[in-house]
Request: fold
Amino acid sequence: MFSFIYFLSFKYILIRLFWCSIPNNPIIIWANFNNYEIYNVVMSNSCVFCDIIKKTAEGYIVYESDRVIAFLDKYPITKGHILVVPVKHYERFIEMEQVDRYALIDSITIITKKVEKLTDNYNIGMNQGEYAGQIISHIHFHIIPRYPNDERSFNHRTILKDSIAMDVVNILTKM
Reply:
């Protein structure tokens, strides 16, 4: 069942489709009737990882397949902190389809080999649920490179700088 809200503007019509089974993830379709193009996008207030996957939000992507994407954490614990995310939105690890779970684990292995260009010390982990420290409700693994005396933790984070991000992307994507 759908409920429709129409928003008309000069060149665009916005149709918001609220899927009853997914009330917090409305689908938005932008139609540009001048060029007869249709754009499917995810609302910015839904899932930031889905926005990165759909390329409607910025992300420093270091790996991408048809089932998994990996990008630099916007608030890294250390240089090269990567988030490995299934393309399909899952909130819980146990809800994942087997093929996506296997692809996720295989991707972690591939990306970890790339991380070893930075350092051979790293943490691989996942937080499941609010009380475990999960902030974004889209399953993801952290690969956190560790360096001598970095003394960083999940409580000590800074915003990712473009210069550092580009340096890491260049190193990790040369394989």
In short: The chain has three helices and nine strands. Confidence is low (pLDDT under 50) at residues 1-45. The chain has two domains: 2-42, 48-172.
